[in-house]
Amino acid sequence: MHLPLTLLALASSCYTALALDLRGRILWNELCPSLRDLGQSKVVLDNGKLQGGITRNGSFEIPDVSPGVYILSVVSHDYHFDKLRVDVFETESLPEVRPYIPGTPLSPPSPVTLPYPILLTARAKNDYFAPPQSFNLMGMFQSPMMLMMLVMGGMMLAMPYILKSMDPEALQDFNKRQARIGALQSSLQSGDLSGGLSALINPAQEESSASTGTAKQTSSSSGVKQRGGKNRRR
Fold it and tell me: Which of 9, 49, 50, 81 could cross-link 74 (Cys pair, CB 3.0–4.6 Å)?
């Protein structure tokens, strides 16, 4: 019974011996001069797997860091810090700190090494204010919808002059078609589908009957002329 407990205590002591308290410090600068300006922030490993708080003088400590490769970052609402690669070894040697660019592979590591304990400084201040866009007249006219509106407005203004220059018969035909389109739209809006269909069918019948009547008149007039010629020959 005592043997498993002894082995467990030995394993925990070995883990504690191999674990490391990772230490570092944030150097205050003109961009971020104090902890009050920094606000509620923390230093994390691998996006929060391990973390440590920041004291008033800028120092931080992440306890019980087991051997491995980690990405160290500072979680801050208002300031941006560089991310670092930290290699913690199983031996008693100090961790190796290297710069890390997000999105790049961990292997091979960067040949550039940084001092330990870790030193960090604020690189930029996050700006969450987006200024409103100013009025741009040329940009407004570059919009396709605005161009379509301008073309339609130009056609409406030019329509009276186009109608004045049209032939009277063509103008009468145009007015009839506009009246048919208006009747069709009103019948469709009122739900009268039969009226809309009749508005579409009747004009076609009228045009066909008109063309038939014109053809008959032409043929009859030509027949009369032919008969008159025959009578004269007789």
Answer: 81
